[in-house]
Amino acid sequence: MSTNQLIDFSNSISVDQSIYDYCVITEKCKEYLWASKNYSSIPYYTGVSHYTSVFFDKEIIKIVEEIGPEKIAMIISDNATNTCVV
């Protein structure tokens, strides 16, 4: 996908969906959407709810491995209690 390409979600998003965007900011302060994932259809019986820090931990590790850990300086998330590992 081109970095200048717009993504039209207007026909695919409804109320009560769990959509998470993963953005990358380069050392030159350019921001890119790395991935936008819809976790709404992940059932709880998989053993890990998509609303827990364990789930987010695994998803972030996958993305770090895709990008390359040597290229990552830090990871920032919102301060929601479900994304924090205690």
UniProtKB/TrEMBL annotation:
Name of the protein this chain belongs to: 21664_t:CDS:1
Lineage: Eukaryota, Fungi, Fungi incertae sedis, Mucoromycota, Glomeromycotina
